Each structure stands twice: as C-alpha cells, then as structure tokens.
Amino acid sequence: MTRARELSTMPAASKLEDVKRELNQLIQGVKSSHQLMSEIVELLHEHMLKYNWVGFYMLEPESRSQPPMLALGPFQGAMTPHTRISLNQGICGAAATSGKTVIVDDVGKDARYLACSLETKSEIVVPVFVRGKVVGELDIDSHFLAAFKDEDRELVEYCAALVGQHLEKTPA
Ligand code: SME
Description:
172 residues; alpha+beta; 6-stranded antiparallel β-sheet; 6 strands
C-alpha cells in the first residue's frame, strides 16, 4: 500500500495527527517561507484525497496606484484562470477581507464563487496572518460536496498558522 493510500484509509483523527507529524518534520528542513508553502501544498494534495486543488494566494505589497490583490503562490492541481484576485471578488476575497476561515459546502449555491474548475463542488479558504494582519491565504477545492469537516478546518488552519509563524521569523 502506498503511503498516500495508507493515510487515506486511516480514521480521520489518526490521519490528521499523522499529517501534522509530517508537517512538523518538514518545517525543520525548509529554507524559506516559499519552500514551506510549496511543501505544504504538495503534502496536502498527495495525502488528502479529497483535496483536489491546493494553493496559496498572497497579498501583493500595497501600492498607491493599485488596489491590493491576491496573487497565486505555490499550488498543486490544475492551472487556474484566477492568478490574481481582488479583495472584493470570490470566496478568496471574502476570507481575506473578513480574516475568517470560509467553508462553502456547495460552491454552486454561493454567488461569490469564482470558478476554477467545473469539477469543484466545495471549498475552504483559511487566512494567513503575520502579526495579526492578513498577508495571504490557503485555498483548497474539492470535487466532493461538503468535503471540509471540523477536522479539515483544524488541519488547514494549522498549516496556515505554520506559514504565518514562519513569515514572522523570515521573509518569503
Ligand atoms: N474559487 C476561488 C478562486 C480560486 S480557485 O478556486 C483556485 C474563489 O471563489 O475565490
């Protein structure tokens, strides 16, 4: 049995602990926040079988001439047409402006949703904070309705917090 398959058949709680253990191991060896984000998206995409698209969007540095935008960072899954998203658009914009995790069980019923793939059915977006300010977010799409339960929220918030803590210590 492959490692990913083995993890997928574990009970939710022990799978979560296993993935967290792997996250804590990989954080030891990373040389930059960008590398940490790349490793996280790879690990989640590989191990969590309902996480069909996993990616970071990071807030671009503010400029006087342009409103702030979210720019696509490291991701795993099919290329998305949404490489830059303004803060008043999409589930991504909603999570960044509210500073709160947004879970959408059925994207077809949410008018805010910006389509990335026709197969996407549900989505979670978790903000990344540095010193209390939103600097980006971790966005995950699933081909399954209501894929994101309490334990998923806990895992994705844990990943976003790891990146926030790393960014506080080192620049991206
Ligand atoms: N669905 C997101 C856009 C990003 S793609 O899912 C990768 C949204 O509604 O903001």
